[in-house]
């Protein structure tokens, strides 16, 4: 296993090891970290928390050709779209590399509309950070599927049943080069009542990995509050996901904001490891999120 190590990072408890195939983050104690000769950082490690984010979500543009109801993006709604420029992106990636971040998930808007996307992803990989992509799939079929091999994971988004036709075309296009994309399903009034149909689609298209995301309300989409699921519906989710994950043998990942609704069920793991993620947004602000700490808030973006 150890010859497959992609990257390591010291922490107060020992270290974290990242593997790409199979995809994993492994937490080890100090004794094993010393045995593996994982280098010590040049700074004092924080005593109770991770030294840096594990995963960073990086919005490369606010541009998108779709107008999904409930979209989180402000600039898109105001038709005032901005792209991150290549040099800016490089500075940010350099800083994340210095912090020993393990993965960067590129998103938007629609990240494929940033002309520098593949160049930025290649730069990220050269900096020993694993790049992943979340896309609505806009015009994937017009692009050479080989270009997508730079990404460790590609996730295609579903906001409603209407997305399935386009998704099917995109999935078969990517499969030409052996890429098996996963799905991101936004759980809202437009998807939750149709989960049976969506799982049928997953089965037919041999999807192996599905991420369920909670639809959230922010300053830009509060007019669409009616799309949000009730607590009662969120609590129905766990048995449904358990049934389908077993039946279809797929990997299901759940947005951390759904954990309170999941955790009420018997047999569900109650102990959740602290997860530390940062999002970099197009307006040059960043947010930190943790599961079991209150959101620390937004601040001026530090990396420029
Ligand atoms: S695809 Fe994503 S970014 Fe584009 S409008 Fe829909 S939710 Fe917004």
Could you explain the architecture of this structure?
The protein has 304 residues and is α/β, with parallel strands linked by helices. The chain folds into two domains: 34 residues; 246 residues, TIM Barrel (Alpha-Beta Barrel). Helices cover 25% and strands 23% of the residues. The protein has eight helices and 13 strands. The strands form two sheets. Strands 10-9-8-7-6-5-4-11-12-13 form a ten-stranded mixed sheet, covered by helices on one side. A three-stranded antiparallel sheet has the order 1-2-3. A hairpin with a 7-residue loop joins strand 12 and strand 13. Helix 3 packs parallel to helix 4. The longest helix has 18 residues. The chain starts with a strand and ends with a strand. The chain binds iron/sulfur cluster (SF4). Iron/sulfur cluster binds next to loops.
Q: What share of the residues lie within helices? A: 25-40%
- Provide the succession of SSEs: EEEHEHHEHEEHEHEHEHEEE
CATH architecture of the largest domain: Alpha-Beta Barrel
Instruction: Report the bound ligands by name, code or SMILES.
Output: iron/sulfur cluster
**What is the mean predicted local confidence, pLDDT?**
86
Shape: globular
CATH C-level category of the largest domain: Alpha Beta
Query: How large a portion of the residues is in β-strands, by DSSP E?
Result: 15-25%
Computed Rg: 19 Å
Number of helices: 8
Sheet with most strands: strand arrangement: 10-9-8-7-6-5-4-11-12-13
The CATH superfamily of the largest domain appears as Aldolase class I
- DSSP strand count: 13
* Total number of domains: 2
* Class by alpha and beta content: alpha/beta
Unreliably modeled segments: 271-276, 288-304
């Amino acid at each position: 296993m150890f010859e497959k190590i992609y990257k390591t990072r010291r922490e107060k408890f020992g270290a974290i090891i990242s593997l790409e195939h199979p995809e994993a983050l492994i937490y080890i104690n100090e004794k094993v970290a010393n045995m593996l000769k994982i280098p010590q950082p040049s700074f004092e490690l924080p005593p109770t928390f991770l030294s840096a984010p594990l995963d960073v979500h990086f919005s490369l543009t606010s541009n998108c050709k779709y107008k999904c109801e409930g979209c989180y993006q402000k600039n898109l709604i105001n038709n005032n779209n901005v792209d991150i420029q290549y040099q800016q992106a490089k500075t940010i990636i350099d800083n994340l590399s210095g912090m020993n971040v393990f993965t960067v998930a590129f998103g938007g808007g629609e990240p494929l509309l940033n002309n520098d996307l593949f160049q930025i992803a290649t730069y990220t990989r050269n900096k020993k950070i694993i790049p992943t992509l979340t896309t609505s799939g806009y015009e994937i079929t017009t692009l050479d599927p080989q270009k997508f091999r730079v990404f460790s994971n590609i996730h295609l988004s579903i906001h409603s049943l209407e997305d399935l036709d386009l998704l099917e075309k995109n999935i078969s296009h990517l499969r030409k080069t052996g890429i098996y994309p996963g799905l991101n399903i936004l759980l809202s009034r437009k998807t939750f009542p149709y989960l049976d149909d969506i799982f049928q689609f997953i089965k037919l298209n041999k999807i192996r990995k599905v991420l369920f995301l909670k639809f959230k309300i922010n300053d830009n989409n509060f007019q669409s509050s009616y799309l949000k699921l009730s607590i009662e519906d969120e609590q129905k989710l766990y048995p449904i996901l358990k049934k389908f994950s077993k039946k279809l043998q797929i990997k299901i990942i759940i947005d951390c904001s759904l954990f309170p609704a999941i955790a009420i069920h018997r047999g569900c793991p109650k102990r959740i490891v602290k997860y530390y993620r940062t999002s970099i947004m197009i307006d040059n602000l960043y947010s930190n999120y943790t599961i079991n700490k209150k959101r620390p808030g937004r601040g001026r973006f530090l990396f420029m």
